[in-house]
């Protein structure tokens, strides 16, 4: 334990040597002081023993000092007798003084040891409060707290369990309670000293109970906060979904119904019939795409999307995405030659890039959209640039939120507000990321970053 006294045999040896050296030291001092007054020199030995080994050895040292002083320096020397009554008084005063000084030194040492122990325990409590209340997972923090507890108290081991544990021949269990409810158990190895167990019971158990109760309450509050945030986000998505159903789904349905009714009439020409049929087909495709986006978003929000990575070419992915986008805008592809293969789910990447391309084409103002791809170190960068009105800096991150529509959308741009959120979701599932860069009235760039893995070496067949 901290402040543990040195071995008692060493104390006896030191006391014997100190009394002997003090006895020798008195001889040369007789020339400058009276014999009887030199007894105070022995107090040095008594104080030394008291400060290191405690009261009873200091008392024994005081008695040994009195006997040595009597035998060697009080007449008649060489015998344990005193001829002069004045010397009896002086020797008695010395013995009482030595005993009192030893007791005071021992008490001071005990208070210093107690103060140091209290300081260590206060420091341990502060350290454990930082460990248990810093906001991480409580179960992972318990072994760290137990290790610091055992180190501070010089224990062989310690453990803190969040369930009841019974004492047995191998361990001693201290229940940790909040009121009448047991919230955890402090487990120490069997065989510890009774004083150590009593100190743990009286000083450490109450601190641990308070800290664990606070940590468990904090975890409960954090869980409530997380659940509240999840419910709030669910309400936001539900409201946005209802808005999308009421508007974005209703619009193509209304157009389909309005175009389908005249198709059965005998009073329209063949050209009008073909035009109405084309309108029905276009709105049906729009409706189908919106439903697909809603399904993709729901799977991404539920973390139910898994990537099935394989080696694929970003050139082929981008060209397939361009072919999928039904937009009048042109796409100018500028891809570095010999781009390395990437390990990703090609179908998910194609859908992500299709959403990005469709968004850029919708806001390009009739100008071509530039698509550039190059490798930089261990990354593959794809930059999709349009020449539209741009996005305000305050909205660069918000445009990736589900159902968010930028205030820069012009009339005639009918977007669901889902494409960019879906694109980011599919890219993150494949280990990539996407962000927007824009200056007012200077267009927008969507930058996609994908990790590059070492490409497999070609297999050479040996015949």
UniProtKB/TrEMBL annotation:
It comes from uncultured Solirubrobacteraceae bacterium. The keyword ATP-binding applies. It is found in: Cell membrane; Membrane. The chain crosses the membrane at residues 6-29, 41-68, 88-108. It is an enzyme of class 2 (transferase). Residues 244-454 form the Histidine kinase domain. Coiled coil: none annotated. It comes from the Bacteria. GO terms for cellular component: plasma membrane. One of its GO terms (biological process) is monoatomic ion transmembrane transport. Keywords: ATP-binding, Ion channel, Ion transport, Kinase, Membrane, Nucleotide-binding, Phosphoprotein, Transferase, Transmembrane, Transmembrane helix, Transport, Two-component regulatory system. GO terms for molecular function: ATP binding; phosphorelay sensor kinase activity. It catalyses: ATP + protein L-histidine = ADP + protein N-phospho-L-histidine. Its EC number is 2.7.13.3. This is histidine kinase. It is a multi-pass membrane protein.
